[in-house]
Amino acid sequence: MTYQEFAVRAMEYAQSIGCASSELYYANGESFEVNANGGEIDRYSASREAGVSIRVSNNGREGYAYSERIDEPEKLVDHAADNARCVESDDEHPMQTKQAYQDIVRADSALKNMTEFERIALTKRLEQVCLALDPRVKRVVYCTAGYDSGAVVMENSLGLHAERSTNSSYLYVMPSVDDGVELQTGFAFRMGLDAADAEGCAKEAVEDALGKLGASPVDSGYYRVLLKPFAMSDLLSAFAQMFSADAAQKGLSLLAGKEGETIASKLVTIWDDPFDPVAPRAFDGEGTPCAKKAVIEKGALKTLLHNLKTAKKAGVESTGNANRRSAASAVGVSPTVFRVETGAHSYEELLVQLGTGLVITELEGLHAGVDEVSGDFSLKAAGFLVENGAIIRPVSNITVAGNFVSMMKDVVAVGNDLRFGMPQGGYFGSPSILVSGLAVAGN
Amino acid sequence: MNPKGVCPTDLISEATAFAVLREAQKSGADYAELFLEDNESTRIEMIDGKVESANYARICGAGVRVLLGTQSAYAYCADINEQSLMNTARAAAAALGEAKYTPNGEIRLSNKRFITPVRQRFDTICNADRIEVMRTGARVIKSASPEVTQAVVRYLDQVQRVTIVNTDGLFVTDERPRTRIYLQAVAMNGSEAQTGFEGPGCCRGFEAYRDVIDVEKYAKSTANMAVTMLHAPECPAGNLPVVIDGGFGGVIFHEACGHSLEATAVGRNNSVFCGKLNTKIAADCVSAVDDGTLPGEWGSINVDDEGGKPQRNLLIENGILKSYLIDKLGSRRMGMPSTGSSRRQGYMFAPTSRMTNTFICAGTDDDEEMISGMAEGLFAKKMGGGSVNPPTGEFNFSVAEGYWVKNGKIVSPVRGATLIGKGSEVLLKIDRVGKHMWMEPGMCGSLSGSVPTNVGQARIRVSGMTIGGKGGTIE
Q1: What separation, in Å, do the N-terminal and C-terminal C-alpha atoms of chain A show?
Q2: Are A95 and A156 in contact (CB under 8 A)?
Q3: Which of A380, A400, A438 has the most B C-beta neighbours within 10 Å, making it the best mutation to test the interface with B?
Q4: Which residues from A are below 8 Å from B58, CB to CB?
Q5: What is the DSSP letter of A366?
């Protein structure tokens, strides 16, 4: 059965059993990933996938069903209708109607036009460059290049039709260095247009690893902290749910009802920008046209992020932030491209402003050491000890702890060195951020 | 059962499977393997006692893996018709390039069929049955305290049917039912919020909610955790003794040691425990096991994801390292037999060495004495999650429910604690292991995706660990 036949039969059947509306979300894709180790292909993966999600609405209640077998549309609709019947929440989730969308020009990512042979050669080169950069580089723990392409088609019985195709490329590496005393690992990645930059990626990763040699903890205490872009963007990603109207309406966000209030330092502006070149898109996970907006503007919370369901409940317009984590997932809410607006200062100037304190370059354990509801975090960290604006030595085996909401009030300077973290289900970027104090545990 | 035909539980005929494997070996692979999966799951979410959403998903696809020495390639597709499988086999074969090995002779098949015994199959119950169980949890959470402002209950059941065929002649099918209920309580006062959670799960049918999972008990514990933590001051920071309770406390072993014993790390010389077999890596009181054979447990498997037989692997015996966790590819790299430890989330992942049910075995120490004999330190009653960097062995994990101990007595609950350290060091600092071991479920993420694993231990004490937090002071 072709997908077109499946779609027609599914929507007709949904109507025939009394569903008020029905929607199909079809996603397919191909992906390629290769990992080099010791000059050989160590892991290699190629794939082709496709799946369809059916969403039906009846009496204001909706149900979902997903399948990777494009057969028996009636059975899948029955599953969705059965799921709709058991929903008890009174919150109506309307489906989107026919919309017009902006034209999005998205540059092809770096690996798109490479042959498979060239992609493999790139991966091997990444490993070789790492090993050649410094005699202390003993091994490369992993070294990976990948390319994904895919398409999404959404259509529903209210006339919605939206489709897009995307492609993405990535390259990442973790070298390990050993100076005879200790072993450290470093990490770097490249994505999109830069994903073929093996040299830059290798250099950054090796510098990261070498910079950690000789690291030790600092004494426990309260420190001024300069969070480098990856540390800050990881925190932003971990606490993104706070900005979701869905979380707020469920009593799971401290930002509920705070629209219009000052919740952060005047230096802080955070954009949700679906048109950012890093991952531009015209419509969200339920077909609503995307829009760029400040979520925090000069410290004031301007809006939470909405899909059609949360917007209806709040009596506002959707902000175009409906999201499906995968085709199999229900419609939720998430940022599109979420980033902290850059400030005026270079990293070097921020070091001087820091004076004495810590630079935090990386945070670990983000899936465990953060509480999205309370905003509390306590995370393993690494970075550098700074005295009088000069880096003294690397620091490791410490934790930094604080509260995301109060930390945003404690921002005293913002850098101009914006970078996006490695995409893991979303795009989060930040420049370096200087905060007046975080609790550090070490010796 | 007709050996040449297709059984109702099979996802492929033998003839087709052979054709696919032959195609996969054409570029010279010395081993080829086909993994087919048909996975049906139901997820329901309840917020504040009302069903918020219900979702059904059927994941169906196949992966072909080829090995040539220690080189591997994997290709997969969301489609299990013969044409797609042949294309997938060709994609995997192409990755090995031009090698010229011709598989000789017939593959001689041995058939094995597994099915997890279930009294109440998930396809015989309806959403109303599931919702009734969830409602009990939500009701108990909300009625526990006026400070509990929100109850979130998530329910999952799934049946994963797999068929694994390889050129060693194995043709294995397995049916794996699993269910889990995740209970979360939120307690709020003014601008502060704290959460509590429990997530019991097992490898059984729906009868689990009658026989082994006491939802009311877990719901109460969830609510108590949230309310207790709402009134807890920030945890002091520093390097002090830590008592870690049994059950999910075993996440410390999972992170501090388990991942570094996987062939994924050891076979590439990326583990602190490389070359340490039969040497002392832990205190004498520590013995640890990974056992995928325990009936009905969340991390158990009838057969591993390359068709191997799971076993009870004694990892550490009285402080001495006895075994790693090894899959087929790891076995080739390390020159050691595989330990039935090959796992994957599903067809989208090549399998690799993973944990199943992993725990520190019960010891001989008294639970109360561990606390009463401690001058000052932390009692970590309930752990959150954690992670590790295997090459360095540095780990971190969060404490979901902690208590501060002074002069042998619990003086206050504390919030926001994180424990960090190096696996190789912390294992040597365990100075007490209690008598009662139990396990709790989690999802473990690694190279081959997210797989269900149990972590476990008896209550233990570590003589010194870095306790991170906002650095409160406890009078």
Answers
A1: 65
A2: yes
A3: A380
A4: 65-69, 76
A5: T
Contact criterion met (CB below 8 Å) for B387 and A367: yes
Q: Cβ contact (<8 Å) for A365 and B131?
A: no
B51 forms beta bridges with B46
Q: Is the confidence metric ipTM above 0.95 for this complex? A: no
- What would the CATH number be for the domain defined by B14-230? 3.30.2290.10
Q: Which residues of A125-151 are buried (b: 16+ CB within 10 A; e: fewer)?
A: bbbbbbbebeebbebbbbbbbbbbbbe
Q: What is the pTM of this model?
A: 0.89
Domain boundaries, chain B: 14-230, 238-468
Residue B105, pLDDT > 60, answer no
Residue B193: its H or E element: strand B192-198
Widest CA span in chain A: 74
Question: Does residue A172 contact residue A202 with C-beta atoms inside 8 Å?
Answer: no
pLDDT band at B106; cut points 50, 70, 90: low
Identity of the residue in B60, B191, B387 whose CB atom sits nearest the CB atom of A365: B387
Report d(CA B138, CA B85) in Å as an integer.
Answer: 45
pLDDT in tens, A374-398: 898 989 999 999 999 999 999 999 9
**Mean pLDDT within A246-261:** 92
pLDDT value of residue B1: 34
- Amino acid identity for residue A423 in this structure: P
* Mean pLDDT, residues A58-69: 91
Nearest residue of chain B to residue A70 (CA atoms)? B79
Residue range B209-238: mean pLDDT, rounded? 95
Question: What is the rounded average pLDDT of the residues B448-469?
Answer: 94
Which residue on chain A is closest to B78 by alpha carbon? A49
For chain B, what is the total number of helices (H) and then of strands (E)? 10, 23
The pLDDT value given to residue A42: 81
Nearest to B355 by CA among B300, B287, B395, B297: B300
What does the buried/exposed string (b/e) look like for A94-124 if buried means 16 or more CB atoms within 10 Å of the residue's CB? bbbeeeeeeeeebeebbbeebebeebbbbbb
What percent of chain A is modeled with pLDDT above 90? Answer: 85
pLDDT of residue A116: 87
